[in-house]
Design brief:
The complex is a heterodimer of chains A (about 60) and B (about 250). Chain A has about 60 residues and is mainly α. Chain A has one domain. Chain A has three helices and no strands. Chain A is rod-shaped. Chain B is an all-alpha fold and about 250 residues long. Chain B folds into two domains: about 170 residues, no CATH class; about 50 residues. In chain B, α3 packs antiparallel against α6 and α4 packs antiparallel against α5. The radius of gyration of chain B is 21 Å and the shape is globular. Classes of the chains: A mainly alpha (about 60), B mainly alpha (about 250).
Chain lengths: ~60, ~250
Amino acid sequence: MTISTTNEQTNTIETSTTQSSLTTLQHIAVLSFGAFILFMVGFSPMPEAHNAAHDTRHSLAFPCH
Amino acid sequence: MLFRRIIFSAILIGLFSGIVLSTSQMVAVTPILLAAEVYEVADEVMPADHQHHQPQEWSPEEGSERTGYTIIANILAAIGFASFILVLLSHLKSRQLIEFNIKHGLLCGLGCYLVFFVMPSLGLPPEIPGSKADALQNRQSWWLLTVIASAIGLLILTFSPLKFKLIGIISLAVPFIIGAPHLDGPDFTHPDPQAITALMDLHQQFIFATSVSNLIFWLSLAAASIWLLKVWVYKPATTENSAVNVNK
């Protein structure tokens, strides 16, 4: 009975750790998505990207020109 | 799946906050940019239709096309920033450091405003066209360093035990110990002294206008994020039930 309870607890802890790692991975994936978009809008050296987002870069205080 | 729900939320929030940003920008920020560009053209003694960019480069036509591209860029930037704040709020909640309520949401929004706007602006104030500045790459590197160091510093100061707080203060100070990249000499080198006075005045107005507009932007992002996290991202079952109830 005691052994069974310990096994259940271990399983619960493992499931919880896996869940937590999965959540962290998904958070990192969302951060990468956001960072990629912000790079394109605010930092991309392509002249077309700069000219299209020029006023946005100035307004958000990204370095421009 | 959490990833899908957060990305979908970021897009919705980005649409909303991007429009909020565009509105405040059109009222208070863009007129100052346009006024400064008049002096920039005169400063570089270029034909009026060439603006401040190389003539062969594509750029949107003045008027509605330029406004349209700015609104799209605002929405995209807002989606990017929304991804950051959604992850921040979601992570802090999973660590039981915050609750999904409007108070904690707005405080996180203020934190992001400090990290992404105030701290970089202390070293590199928002620029108007026509001002002289150091090489773009140096300024971008310093901006990125400041944002990362400020985020780490602010998180440590807010959530870490007392014995680690000093690290937070050091982290906040590092970019300013290194120093923001600046050119020697005046910010504006227009040949007409009256134009320089006008540009300096426009620059002050621009700093004020962008400060207010970015504050409104971050508070709108934070409020929308906390609301969507609460009612949808972390409560899909409840939402489905209510949808069924509404259908009934």
